[in-house]
Amino acid sequence: MPSPAPSSNRFERRRAVTRRALIRAARQILAESGDTSASIQAIAERADVGFGSFYNHFDSKTELFEAAVVDALEEFGQNFDQHLTGIDDPAELVASGFRLSARMADSHPELMQVLRRRGLGHIHSDNGLARRALRDLQAGLEAGRFTPVDPAVALSALGGTLLSLAELRFARPDLDGDQAAIDLAEMVLRMLGVPPSEAHEVARRPLPDTAAQAAPSR
């Protein structure tokens, strides 16, 4: 007699698809306007799911939008993992992360808008970008690459600068985003204690193959 497991699995898959659709809709709203006052009905319609489905996954809109921010920042972090694999120097990882972020304003605008609008409250979270940045900062501190400082303080400086870069990319679309990211990366490395001449060189090292991140033609 066939096992009932496949039916259960189908149910769980349907639940996962519905949850994902709601999170996707919330991410779009955050990226477009940052306005979280949309009704649950409007969110459900955007997600193309039934109104009642919302409460099968979330207790409130606040919970949904928080899940959407976490989801976007985790995807952002996974992009870093994908494209910066193989870089062992913590200083180069920091610099490359800034430069990759600048390019993502064009290649992944939704992610960058969510970071811009809601990233401040997640600078010290234990997931997404923050977890990866803290890892790289701690590696740099342990290796003597960076000046000894409380990692949380260094993370505040790094996160604040990244949010400023995100704001700059959208406020000044005419600006050379790559050059701005290089300059900011150099400044951050110097702030972390990397000697000026070395910070200048590290911030300009060739990026790994980031063809998938290349800015679309306009």
Automatic annotation (TrEMBL):
Residues 198-218 are annotated as: Disordered. Residues 198-207 have a biased composition (Basic and acidic residues). It comes from the Bacteria. The keyword Transcription applies. Signal peptide: none annotated. Keywords: DNA-binding, Transcription, Transcription regulation. Residues 16-76 form the HTH tetR-type domain. InterPro entries: Homeodomain-like_sf (IPR009057), HTH-type_TetR-like_transc_reg (IPR050109), HTH_TetR (IPR001647), Tet_transcr_reg_TetR-rel_C_sf (IPR036271), TetR_C_40 (IPR049513). SUPFAM superfamilies: Homeodomain-like, Tetracyclin repressor-like, C-terminal domain. It holds the Pfam family TetR_N. Residues 39-58 bind DNA. This is TetR/AcrR family transcriptional regulator. It comes from Streptomyces pseudovenezuelae.
